[in-house]
């Protein structure tokens, strides 16, 4: 097990002020760079000395990554927008209440004040063994320490697990998938737009990552179309007695009537290794 210390490993700190500058830095340093948004997940890794990047790219000075904007097609949310800002935004609360509920379910008010929507959907697995430096599959080892009857695995997957049983810990991810959101990613080949559901990957695709971002990539914007604006939603998160911890399971439902047909019952499940959605039409 890793020795937990408060002294972080030495690294070079860079603080770009534009997406273009950040993109160049990430392309130059690639796997040696660590992206920091709100810093909550980053500081955990760095203080425990599990991750030791050569360069820390602090995105906090990039104004264009912040804020919520309405467009002719829906809503755009900058990746650095805090979860509190998402929860309190009037358009989100009125038109996309599912996202407001999902974001508000994340951790505590103090964490939501600092944590960002981009960081929430891109954070790493919260498995106790992986986070403590055990040589598991996700860390490059050859076994899963959580996949035993006596292990600490209450929050882990029971469906679609492949060697690693850790789940994606994001509380906003299921809501974004159900809302048909799209994620805008800047890569070395230009801008890439993917469906929210395709942003997340399970261990059967890549056991070392929970998302499709590769070294050099940067998530900049989340776009939510008007498709589900004003629909009736239901969000449920099941946790332990601490109530602000990791979810044991979560699910969300919605119903909206569109011009051409009805769409009903999108649902996302945290019993699975990755967030997913199934939509029934009639």
List the helices and strands and how they pair.
Elements: E1 12-14, H1 19-29, E2 33-36, H2 40-47, E3 55-58, E4 68-70, E5 74-78, H3 83-88, H4 90-95, H5 97-104, H6 109-114, H7 117-122, H8 128-131, H9 173-178, E6 182-187, E7 190-195, H10 196-199, E8 218-225, E9 232-238, E10 249-257, E11 262-267, E12 278-281
Parallel strand pairs: 1-3, 2-3
Antiparallel strand pairs: 4-5, 5-8, 6-7, 6-8, 9-10, 10-11, 11-12
User: At the third CATH level, what is the topology name?
Assistant: Uridine Diphospho-n-acetylenolpyruvylglucosamine Reductase, domain 3
The percentage helix is 10-25%
Give the biggest beta sheet. Answer: 5 strands, antiparallel
Question: How many β-strand stretches?
Answer: 12
As a whole number of angstroms, the C-alpha radius of gyration is 19 Å
Taken together, the total number of domains comes to 1
- Tell me what the CATH architecture is: 2-Layer Sandwich
Poorly predicted segments: 257-271, 278-282
Q: Structural class from helices and strands?
A: alpha+beta
Roughly what fraction of the amino acids lie in strands?
Answer: 15-25%
Quaternary structure: single chain
Instruction: Output mean pLDDT.
Output: 86
**Helix-strand pattern:** EHEHEEEHHHHHHHEEHEEEEE
CATH class: Alpha Beta
Q: Distance between the terminal alpha carbons, to the nearest Å?
A: 52 Å
Number of helices: 10
- Give me the side-by-side strand order of the main sheet: 4-5-8-6-7
User: What general form does the structure show?
Assistant: globular
């Amino acid at each position: 097990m890793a020795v937990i210390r408060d002294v972080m490993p030495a690294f070079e700190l860079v603080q770009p002020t534009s997406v273009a500058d950040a993109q160049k830095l990430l392309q130059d340093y690639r796997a040696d760079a660590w992206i920091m948004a709100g810093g909550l997940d980053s500081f955990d890794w760095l203080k425990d000395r599990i991750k030791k990047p050569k360069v820390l790219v602090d995105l906090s000075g990039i104004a264009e990554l912040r804020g919520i904007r309405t467009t002719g097609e829906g809503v755009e949310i900058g990746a650095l927008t805090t979860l509190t800002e998402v929860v309190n935004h009037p358009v989100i609360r009125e038109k996309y209440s599912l996202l407001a509920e999902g974001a508000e379910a994340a951790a505590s008010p103090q964490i939501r004040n600092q944590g960002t929507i981009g960081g929430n959907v891109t954070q790493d697995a919260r498995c106790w063994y992986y986070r403590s430096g055990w040589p598991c599959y996700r860390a490059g080892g050859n076994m899963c320490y959580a996949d035993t009857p006596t292990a600490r695995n209450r929050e882990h997957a029971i469906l679609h697990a492949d060697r690693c049983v850790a789940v994606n810990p994001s509380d906003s991810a299921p809501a974004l998938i159900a809302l048909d959101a799209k994620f805008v990613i800047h890569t070395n080949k230009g801008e890439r737009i993917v469906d929210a559901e395709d942003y997340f990957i399970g261990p059967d695709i890549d056991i070392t990552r929970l998302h499709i971002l590769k070294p050099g990539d940067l998530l900049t914007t989340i776009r939510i179309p008007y498709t589900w604006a004003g629909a009736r939603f239901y969000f449920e998160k099941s946790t332990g007695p601490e109530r602000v911890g990791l979810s044991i399971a979560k699910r969300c439902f919605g119903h909206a009537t569109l011009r051409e047909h009805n769409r009903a019952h999108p649902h996302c499940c945290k019993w699975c290794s990755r967030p997913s959605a199934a939509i029934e039409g009639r």
